[in-house]
Design goal:
- Keywords: Membrane, Transmembrane, Transmembrane helix.
- It contains 20 helices and two strands.
- The protein is mainly α.
- Among the domains are: about 110 residues, no CATH class; about 120 residues, no CATH class.
- α6 packs across α7 and α14 runs antiparallel to α20.
- The longest helix has about 40 residues.
- The radius of gyration is 45 Å and the shape is elongated.
- The chain starts with a helix and ends with a helix.
């Protein structure tokens, strides 16, 4: 087990080093701020070296600091270094030494910061003002050089020059590090193959290699991101991590996705087949066959009658009590509208002490009508004779509507409308 764990740790280190290499150039500024010693050591593998122009600029600033400390801001030696920095600033603006490293944005930020600092819209003029004895004396040497070190220097110091190889590509010597890990894993893979073959001779070399397929990723010099696969497998085998929960979650998500896709496929296929049946007239033939063929009763229950009775019970006992205030409001509105058109009613409203009586009478009438209708409907459902009449109504209603649908172009229109409706449902469902 100790060997498995050691190799799993080495594989993890190899993967982390690969990720560091892949992200080194785009994230070099971050590494430079947080791991400066690592950056100084790793730059050579990427052919990176300090850019001579920006390096010369920073050296001149350091010489200026030393001169001011020794001779003061008003000395001739200080003036000489200020003039040199002004010249280097103009050269930096014109030559853009940041372009090779893809950091032209840094130069623009530097120019913006200097322009804002000295209130001069010209970048060259702003640098000329900033690197002058008059400005530094008036604004304060310590304050201005701290501004430079805090805001300008970090933008310059991260600049670099990257060498090209004979093929015209940027130098990249990561292979010098990677070959160490590749050699380790290649030797381990060969050792495992010989060991497995020795204890299980019925397996061919190819079969043994297939068993350890994930180890091949570790000896490939490309596709470095894929090294996460053997790393996770090795860590799991070495019992350094537990992925049971992750595996179950991934399986749940995977199975859930498959179920969703299958459900969508089945629904869309069902809608498509229904459209085909409508287009071919199969629905019409089924309806006519059902209406013209004697009904086969399997359970001594007329399902249509039961459905109608159940629907009526839901409407009477559950729906109407909830919407009764709305029904009364509609009736009240209709009564009041009809009465308001009567001249006698309008005259009656104008009489003092009597104007409110018609409205109160309307309320009483509406409530009595509503209560009477609801009472009649409940008695209708509870009366056995009424139940017989309802069943006969259901039979006649079903037969009549079936016969009427078969006449003329009614069924054709219904099929066309249903076809269009299903097409809209398919489009809506597919675009979710």
């Amino acid at each position: 087990m100790w060997f498995e764990r050691s190799m799993a740790i080495i594989a993890s280190i190899s993967f982390l080093v690969s990720i560091f290499d892949l992200t080194y150039i785009p994230c070099r500024d971050f590494y430079f701020r947080n791991l400066p010693s690592v950056v100084r050591a790793y730059d050579r593998f990427k052919g990176i070296q300090p850019h001579r122009e920006t390096e010369r600029y920073l050296n001149a600033v350091e010489q200026l600091k030393s001169t001011v400390e020794q001779t003061g801001i008003a000395s001739s030696q200080t003036q000489s270094w200020l003039q040199q920095l002004d010249t280097l600033s103009v050269s930096m603006i014109q030559n853009n030494p940041f372009q090779v490293a893809g950091k032209t944005g840094n130069l623009e930020r530097i120019k913006d910061d200097i322009r804002d600092r000295v209130k001069n819209q010209s970048a060259k003029g702003a640098f000329n003002t900033f690197w002058s004895q008059e400005y530094l004396t008036k604004a304060g040497w310590d304050k201005e050089i701290q501004f430079f070190d805090r805001q300008i220097k970090p933008l310059i110091v991260t600049n670099y020059y990257r060498r090209l190889n004979e093929s015209g590509n940027y130098v990249d010597d990561f292979w010098q590090i990677d070959v160490i890990f590749i050699s380790i894993f290649a030797g381990e893979l060969l050792g495992r193959i010989f060991f497995i073959r020795r204890h299980n001779r019925q397996l061919s070399w190819q079969q043994v290699l297939i068993r350890r397929w994930y180890d091949l990723i570790l000896i490939l010099p490309f596709a470095q991101f894929l090294r996460i696969i053997p790393v996770i497998i090795r860590l799991q085998q070495a019992k350094l991590i537990k992925l049971d929960l992750v595996k179950s979650e991934l399986n749940r998500l995977f199975v859930g996705q498959i179920v969703n896709e299958l459900t969508e496929g089945v629904i869309l296929q069902t809608l498509h087949q229904t459209q085909g049946a409508l287009r071919d007239g199969q629905i019409t033939r089924v309806i006519r066959s059902y209406l013209n063929t004697p009904h086969v009763d399997l359970n001594n229950i007329n399902e249509i009658e039961v459905l109608i009775e159940l629907t009526l019970e839901i409407i009477v006992y559950r729906v109407i009590p909830k919407v009764q205030p709305d029904l009364e409001a509609i009736l009240r509105h209709l009564f009041q509208k009809a009465l308001s058109e009567s001249p006698a009613y309008r005259n009656l409203q104008m009489l003092p002490g009597i104007g409110e009586m018609p409205a109160q009478a309307v309320d009483r009438v509406v409530k009595e009508i509503s209560a009477s209708i609801y009472t009649a409907m409940t008695k209708l459902l509870e009366d056995p004779d009424s139940a017989k009449l309802s069943r006969r109504l259901a039979e006649n209603f079903t037969q009549s509507i079936g016969n009427e649908m078969q006449r003329g172009q009614t069924i054709v229109k219904i099929e066309s409308l249903l076809y269009d409706l299903i097409e809209e449902i398919k489009v809506t469902y597919s675009s979710r």
